[in-house]
Amino acid sequence: MPIATPEVYAEMLDRAKANEFAYPAINVTSSETLNAALRGFAEAESDGIIQVSTGGAEFASGTKVKDMVTGAVALAEFAHVVAEKYPVNIALHTDHCPKDKLDGYVRPLVAISQERVDRGLNPLFQSHMWDGSAVPLDENLKIASELLDLTVKAKIILEIEVGVVGGEEDGVAHEINEKLYTSPEDYLKTVDALGAGEKGRYLVAATFGNVHGVYKPGNVKLRPEILKQGQDVVAEKLGLPAGSKPFDLVFHGGSGSLLEEIHEAVTYGVIKMNIDTDTQYAFTRPIVGHMFANYDGVLKVDGEVGNKKAYDPRSYLKAAEQGMAARIAQACEHLKSSGRMIAG
Description:
With about 350 residues, this protein is α/β, with parallel strands linked by helices. The protein has 13 helices and ten strands. The chain has one domain (about 5-285, about 320-335): Aldolase class I (TIM Barrel, Alpha-Beta Barrel), CATH 3.20.20. The strands form two sheets. Strands 1-2-3-4-5-8-9-10 form an eight-stranded parallel β-barrel, surrounded by nine helices. Strands 6-7 form a two-stranded antiparallel sheet. Helix 7 packs across helix 8 (about 225-240). It starts with 5 loop residues before the first helix and ends in a 10-residue tail after the last helix. Keywords: Glycolysis, Lyase, Metal-binding, Zinc.
């Protein structure tokens, strides 16, 4: 199927919310990892989200070029072509973008999509994330409001972060402390600034102990009830029935999370869960296995010629794609909860 249109993406998110499941949002940095993500969603018979961080986009442009917009556009254009061969809906998203990179990443990409929409085409990306976790909340929401005006016009959905995700990703690092938990006041300020959908749709990456990086299950102290508290306080403010979920929530920093914690978070309105560390390992592990198993083939040991079939990148990238795809399919299964994420 073609990359999701704005209407299809909105329907995907609505379906997740109504049926209490979440889409894995898979970070990619190359055509190889993007192919693996597409394959994984197809094998799971699931729609999904593929996303590109600032660092991932810079890498994709080439280590000599190092231009975030060039890399993001290249991956998105590649996805628009290749995704048509798969029987699932895929949305394209850009991950964490801090304040100092907005003018060099998100704003130019929104402008590219606006130009496409002005010509009667669909936007290049379906959503973009503004990560304002490093600035005061009032400034975070002021910038978010300005970006929301732009994304609505370009038929794009905005994702914001309210709170702080601990650990480190793409050079953005935060301490692991009490700031990892979004407060009820933070939720209320968010809806005051951005509305409840009347100003445009947005996703909220609220934090409840999330941490980026590699942690064993049980080592991350998640409190999913923080999400329910936020939904409840905003529902009350808006006069909505008890149990309503006014926010579309995003789960960042899922490494080390227990499955029951993931499922609980999904029941509170999480419809998107970012996955990066696990799929990086799933991609790299088969390559390591290939190199160890074919040591004398990938190296010209003792003056020998090696084995071209062993050091041809296709020989090990094929296994890497398969390994990452399998991990993504597993993630789709874990995030089904009580609903189904089958391609719509």
